[in-house]
Design brief:
3-stranded antiparallel beta sheet, alpha+beta, 3 strands, Ribosomal Protein L30, Chain: A, 2 helices
């Protein structure tokens, strides 16, 4: 999966900020390619309003 951060975490709850950081994202426009696992899908579901997901 390719995950791209499209919105800022400013003003977000601490658990949302930590989830975005755990995915490896720091700034708007950053992207990471991560394996498609259940754990990663849970992370993405938590921050779905801040990221864009592209399936490979």
């Amino acid at each position: 999966m390719k995950i791209t951060q499209i919105k800022s975490v400013i003003g977000a709850k601490p658990n949302i900020k930590e989830t975005v950081r755990s995915l490896g994202l720091k700034h708007i426009g950053d992207y990471v390619e991560i394996p498609d696992t259940q754990q990663n899908r849970g992370y993405v579901r938590t921050v779905r309003h801040l990221v864009k997901v592209e399936e490979k």
